[in-house]
Amino acid sequence: MVVFSSCNQNTVFTKYITIPESGWDKANKISFEVDITDNNTLNNVYLTVRHADSYPFSNLFVFLNTTYPNGKHSIDTLECILATPKGEWIGDGAGDIFDNKILVTKNVRFPEVGKYTFTFEQGMRNNPLPLIMDFGMVIEKSK
């Protein structure tokens, strides 16, 4: 289910997916298709994570499978840090919900124009993973 999708002058792509209340199951892979029309511009890539205050971990590991317009694939493991070493949530809080915008890559140029598919799988030991509410991806032009 899509929460929202929006655009401004510097936003190349933004999309958020609501995770079921039962948790983020490893079989529930989240994919974003992004049409890149400019491979000369530098971009910043972010992941967005909304979680409950009672989320039991200080981080979130995700596996990323990227499919390029030419059909090639790459696989990465990403760690989203959600809390300080003292256990304080890093994101913006409203009540018992915290929103995080985590920089993944800064000043990156996409190697070619065309459709990229970014597929994310939760990489934590718990399955399903509880209390992750929304997961998203944002690509913005670097300033």
Structural summary, described in words:
Helices cover 0% and strands 54% of the residues. It is an all-beta fold and 143 residues long. Strand 4 and strand 5 form a beta hairpin. The chain is globular. It starts with 10 loop residues before the first strand and ends with a strand.
Helices and strands, with pairings:
Blueprint: E1 11-18, E2 30-36, E3 43-52, E4 59-67, E5 73-81, E6 92-94, E7 97-108, E8 114-122, E9 132-141
Antiparallel strand pairs: 1-9, 2-8, 3-7, 3-9, 4-5, 4-8, 6-7
In short:
The chain has 143 residues and is mainly β. The protein contains no helices and nine strands. It is 0% helix and 54% strand.
Give the helix proportion (percent range): under 10%
Question: What proportion strand?
Answer: over 45%
Biggest beta-sheet profile: 5 strands, antiparallel
Helix/strand-derived category reads mainly beta
Write down how many β-strands occur, each being a DSSP E stretch of 2 or more residues: 9
| Tally of alpha and pi helices | 0
Low-confidence stretches: 1-6
Task: Kindly report the spatial arrangement of strands forming the biggest sheet.
Answer: 1-9-3-7-6
Order of helices and strands: EEEEEEEEE
The radius of gyration computed from the alpha-carbon positions, rounded to a whole number of angstroms, is 15 Å
Q: Mean pLDDT, nearest integer?
A: 94
Give the end-to-end Cα distance, rounded to a whole number of Å.
31 Å
Shape: globular
